[in-house]
């Protein structure tokens, strides 16, 4: 007997462009009455029927609803109602970095947010302007900005930020954090630049040996080619061969007789890998409130005219939700 029964098969995805496959998925807050649910479900079904008949104009979206069962009311952000929301006087008046530090400490302390350092990094390729976004971990915060670690030799973010033969560099980058149990979002926009190798080395040394070898081995985001000699290989073998090469370069931990992977061994940080610091130009703090009337405050860096050392100055403005 299987320990965990298999989940029911997902519904077959619709093939029509505007057929709604997911619609108002908030089962935790169902509509007040069965009649209200039925009415919305009927409207959704009618929309789908029209779509299937090719009767509805499509505005380029692929979301849709093939089985618009019982739609829920979209959830409410209520946590902060009892605290009166976020006010200007709650914010650090001088620095969004200090404000971020305070919110991050709360996100760590509150429980229920397993990895508050998880965020989305967005970059844009030039000259097309095409944007790409991916999850990363914030690893450091300092007075200058937000630091994460990655491969900049072969990844999309590396090409977007630092350019290559076909793309000019575009150092603008954005980070977005979402801390659900606090109902808080933080958005960061700024210019990104690489940390010097010595600084990256300090973080690199904290990683377990396997991850340091992995950083050397992986040509991040490049296509892995299946081996013609090994039936059934889908490309994973190529990655494993690169790991073996990196192991050979630095000496196998097994040869050292160190069972835990020889974590003490010094491995230099690869030149194509390291820290990226995003120096913010704009940081927004978003606190969820009832009825979508959220509190939003945005810090914008002020660039003063004239020579001399630039003093750090920010404006703080409240934004409409
Ligand atoms: C939760 C999570 C955290 C991640 N953290 C990192 C990270 O800190 N650095 C990194 O290079 N990739 C990280 N990744 C992988 C990236 O999302 C992405 O696959 C990779 O960086 C290649 O992206 P790119 O080619 O678009 O630049 C993480 C993925 C997840 C799901």
From TrEMBL:
Its EC number is 1.4.3.5. It is an enzyme of class 1 (oxidoreductase). The keyword Oxidoreductase applies. Its cofactor is FMN. PROSITE patterns: PYRIDOX_OXIDASE. Residues 109-224 form the Pyridoxamine 5'-phosphate oxidase N-terminal domain. One of its GO terms (molecular function) is pyridoxamine phosphate oxidase activity. Keywords: Flavoprotein, FMN, Oxidoreductase. Residues 273-321 form the Pyridoxine 5'-phosphate oxidase dimerisation C-terminal domain. It holds the Pfam family PNPOx_N. Pathway: Cofactor metabolism; pyridoxal 5'-phosphate salvage; pyridoxal 5'-phosphate from pyridoxine 5'-phosphate: step 1/1; Cofactor metabolism; pyridoxal 5'-phosphate salvage; pyridoxal 5'-phosphate from pyridoxamine 5'-phosphate: step 1/1. The keyword Flavoprotein applies. This is pyridoxal 5'-phosphate synthase.
